[in-house]
Amino acid sequence: MTTPPPALPSPEPGPSTTGPSAAPQAEDEDAKAKDGRSFGDFLREAVQENTVTVTVLALLSATVLGGLLTAFTNSGVLHAWSNFFSAPGNAIAKAWDAASGTYVALFEGSVFNPHTISALFQQASFSTAIHDGYLSAVFNPLSETAVQATPLILAGLAVALPYQAGLFNIGGQSQFIGGAIMSAWLGYAVNLPFFVHVVVCVIGGFVGGAAIGWLAGEIKARTGAHEVIVTIMLNYVMQYFLAYLLSSQSLLQASGSSNAITPAIASDAHLPLLAGTHLRINAGFLIALACAFAVWWLLNRTTTGFEFRSVGANASASRVAGMNVERNWSLVMLIGGGLAGLAASTVILGTDFTLNPQSYGTYGIDAITVALLGLGRPGGVVAAGLLFGALHAGSPGMQTATGTPVQIVQVIQALMVLFVAAPPLVRATFRLRAARARGVSTSMSKGWNA
Amino acid sequence: MELELRGITKRFGLLAANDGISLSVAPGQVHALLGENGAGKTTLMNVLYGLTQPDEGEILLDGEPAKFGSPRDAIAAGIGMVHQHFMLVPVFTVADNVTLGHESSDFSRGGLGGSSPRGILGRGGLLNRGKARRDVADLSHRYGLDVDPDALVGELPVGIQQRVEIVKALIRQANVLILDEPTAVLTPAETEELFRIIRQLKEGGTSVIFISHKLREVQAIADTITVLRRGQVVGQRTPPVTEDDLASLMVGRNVQLRVSKQPAKPGEVVLDVADLTVGDSGGLPVNGLSFQVRAGEILGIAGVQGNGQTELCEALMGLRPTVGGSVTVNGRDLTRASPRARLRAGVAYVPEDRREDGLVGTFSVAENLILDMYDRPPYASGINLHLPAVRANATERIQEFDIRTGSPATPAGTLSGGNQQKVILAREVGREHKVLIASQPTRGLDVGSIEFVHRRIIEQRDHGVAVVIVSSELDEIYALADRIAVMYEGKITGFRDPDVPAAELGRLMAGGADSSGVPGATVEADGALLVDGAQPVREADPAHEGGAAPDGDPGYDGDGAPAPADQEEA
Q1: Number of folded domains in chain B?
Q2: Last residue of a domain, which of B241, B258, B288?
Q3: How far apart are CA B518 and CA B566, in angstroms?
Q4: Closest-CA distance of chain A to residue B410, Å
């Protein structure tokens, strides 16, 4: 077992060793930071340098840029521009219509659509309205947003929690797949009474993800291999392992099917719906919110979280203070992996009811963007998850209403993260003063503030 | 070229890193700057190389005042610097590295590196690689540097990489070459080679400023030695000079801060270190070291930095694997114990590097005050943290140790060094402990904080704690220790009572073998130096002597007992 030795100070680090000469010391550290910056350092900086202001402005910038993009990818608008000199007003009006129409459609698809209200009031009686699903239609956008946000929040937590312990979990995908395999298999192959079955499947999802996460953490703890590389490679391992499982009838593939898909899971194992059969919102959303709270509690109110944060902020001092840094790495990756596994459970048991190679989608990567946008904090992750959920929920309507390609939503998402990940870009754009270099990290220990 | 520095002063906040430093370097002379870490050597050289601007004072070149706004100016004036950490691109060849950044400039005017009047950036923006290679080969041959211009820098051993840096400086017409801790990365054989090159440069008329804290090397190579301490020139010597003399100058002997203390009342042996050996890739930084510390006494471990003190402390805390020997606290063998087990066994530890090892800078003061007790009552039950208890503890400690902080929620990293140290000390002595190990406890602290820390440490002793102080400041050793051990190259070269003359400690610090009795010659030779009115003669300590005499533990008292160093050599 090789434990990396604690970093020793260089024999003569300059005048900075002498006490209050903070100025040269800071320069020294900055210089070092510029020298050998790893991917991890970059992410850490990106998250720490962020303030809420920067995040809000990043969202705003992305929205404006996204609007311009929709305007100039719309065929009607492009046609109007070609007649710009004969009818300049027309081109600009068309561009505005396309952009605003897109965002209105996005809003209607994800939050609230006024047409559903008028439809509701056109019904003869309130009871028929409820019975025919008109009332549900009013809440459908919100329900869809919650459904889309659920796995994003959970997977985002799977990145945010290890981040607090100084680890970058890029392996959301592998852990998601691990959880998905467990959930799906328990869901169709085991017979258990209602409620017990779904609980077992959810726990199974956590265990499946936790096993993969723990593996990555343990490899890092025992060998010192960088967790980014380990988790990325495990993504491939799990991706092809799943493909293999789904290609054999004796394993997970549904019998009689030529497609790579598992049998449908038993209805006992479905996550209970929360608002009637017309809406897809299910208990998974509550699981996500509960997990976000649990992660906050773990980090700020328990000795385990104290260790996680301490190891993440200064592994060397943590070791001197008697903490077992390596054990913390394993543990935090285990819990993080479990959260990604839960994300899989909510997808398999809440919306998909089967497992196929499309099930894991891009959750692994989206999780990183959600955690980044949420500044690595549980509350932020919930907010970022809801925002991305809304974008996902609203994008199909966008296409039907204005003909804007769905891909534009992905671009807007990417722009948001791009702006969030590059605080200097936003600061330069809006002429903000640089945040106190390391001051923002105070927010990490907010728990103490009376 | 004659280089002179006059009254250079550079302040960082309240601290003067350089305080009125004057020195001059004659052409073809090797001038050594000797001093501990933080003595101000590097700051002075940064001033000379144009990296920082002095607050006061001036630089004179051949009697003419010069002003260096940036390294570019310094290079133009003929000053070259080889940094401790090389500034080379590993995937480039030697010749490419040498020309890097000066592709179009005419750095070889005057003919040292060649005779062409042009830089290597030829017509049409094409690199004239041939010329660069010829220049490097030429220079390399002239000074016996033996550097292949076509070798990839990343594939060269460290010693040769250093020569590439020297070539870089020389090809830019350096008349004064600054070598910052050049031997820190070299093997003894490479060091010999470097010295040969330095002598050759000297003959060619180049002046060399050689920065080091290694006494032996400075003696071997320097024509003049200037010793810096706390930003001031404390002495200038011309070899031959004794290493004892240099060591005393380096660590100082002016005791300005004396904390009044009662004679120690040593009790039972609490900490027993026997034959401790620590290995790393480069050898044995701690080599068969033994000592004992009793309840209610302070053992001061003196020595020039880099003689294994850091490794010793880390090994004592279980942060570094040991090769042999044992560590026992109150009869309990802790040789293989984890850091946590040692803390629980009652060892309090103030690490040398407080920012790196002592504190979590982004954590609040309150959190740092429980950093190694967060999982024990009253701060926790099960996995639940009790925030009110954490806050109450913080309020209490902040008051008790006079920690100047905005609030308990202030991040510890924003406090001053002295207050950070108070946080660590408050935490470590705040829990049950029988042993206190403090490494460089007052490094970089202001006078007030030093006194505070010293008083607290003596208070600990008076409460019956066995205290080990590791310090490279003789002042501190004299102010605190009831018994002094001197460390040199991983071994203890001798134990002495605190009334030992500084010259004797200096002799031990330079590796002088232990001998029974005090060598009178040394004392007499340095007698004049010691009459500064600050010689810390303390009354012989009856309690201490009483405790020591009947015991005869190996290494417990210097005289007569077989010292561990001797055992090792046997």
Answers
A1: 3
A2: B241
A3: 17
A4: 8
Structural Rg of chain B based on CA atoms? 26
Helix (H, G, I), strand (E, B) or coil at B471: coil
Q: Tell me whether residue A24 is in a domain.
A: no
> What's the full length of chain A, in residues?
450
Concatenating the DSSP letter of every residue in A22-51 gives HHHHHHHHHHHHHHT--HHHHHHHHHHT--
DSSP percent split of chain B into helix, strand, coil, nearest 5? 35, 25, 40
Query: Residue A373 maps to which CATH number?
Result: 1.10.3470
Is A33 part of a structural domain of the chain? Answer: no
Whether B31 and B129 map to the same domain: the answer is no
**DSSP annotation string for A387-407:** HHHHHHHHHHHHHHHH---TH
Q: Which domain holds residue B119?
A: 93-169
Compute φ and ψ for A161, nearest 5 degrees: -65, -55
Most distant CA pair in chain B, distance: 87
In a domain, B396, yes or no: no
| Pick from A438, A135, A321: nearest CA to B375 | A321
Specify if B390 maps to a domain: no
SS3 state at B50: coil
Beta-carbon contacts of residue A236 (< 8 Å; ≥ 6 apart): none
| Cβ separation B357–A316 shorter than 8 A | yes
Q: Mutate which of B353, B416, B423 to disrupt the A interface (most A C-beta within 10 Å)?
A: B353
CA distance B207 to B23: 13
Q: Bridge-partner residues for B24, per DSSP?
A: B4
Separation in Å, CA A106 to CA A70, A414, B391: 12, 16, 47
Q: For an interface test with B, which of A1, A3, A17, A18 has the most B Cβ atoms less than 10 Å from its Cβ?
A: A18
CA distances for B464 relative to B436, B459, B556, angstroms: 11, 9, 18
B2 and B49 in a common domain: yes
The answer to whether residues B11 and B60 belong to one domain is yes
> Are B208 and B69 in the same domain?
yes
Within-domain flag for B527: yes
* Residue among B40, B306, B409 whose CB faces A448 most closely: B409
Asked if this assembly's ipTM is beyond 0.85, the reply is no
Residue range(s) defining the domain that contains residue A310 = 111-403
Q: What phi, psi does B227 have (nearest 5°)?
A: -105, 125
Contact present, B505 and B484 (Cβ < 8 Å): yes
Q: Give the residue on A whose Cα is nearest the Cα of B321.
A: A5
**Do residues B466 and B493 share a domain?**
yes
- The beta-carbon neighbor of B84 closest among A12, A319, A322 is A12
B466 and B451 in a single domain? The answer is yes
User: Do B353 and A9 count as a contact with CB atoms less than 8 A apart?
Assistant: yes
3-state secondary structure of B178: strand
| Closest to A232 measured CA to CA, from A364, A102, A45, A126 | A364
SS (H, E, C) A75-122: HHHHHHHHCCCCCHHHHHHHHHHHHHHHHHHHHHHHCCCHHHHHHHHC
Tens of pLDDT along chain A (450 residues) come to 344 444 433 333 333 333 333 334 333 433 333 344 555 665 555 555 556 777 788 888 888 888 888 887 777 777 777 777 777 788 888 888 888 888 888 888 888 888 888 888 887 777 777 777 788 888 899 999 999 999 999 999 999 999 999 999 999 999 999 999 999 999 999 999 988 999 999 999 999 999 999 999 999 999 999 999 999 999 999 999 999 999 988 888 888 888 888 999 999 899 999 888 888 999 999 999 999 999 999 999 999 999 999 999 999 999 999 999 999 999 999 999 999 999 999 999 999 999 999 889 889 988 998 998 888 899 999 999 999 999 888 888 887 877 777 787 788 878 887 887 777 777 777 776 554 433 333 333 322 222
**Residue B504's domain is classified under what CATH number?**
3.40.50.300
Within a domain: A261 = yes
How many Å apart are CA B492 and CA B502, to the nearest integer?
A: 17
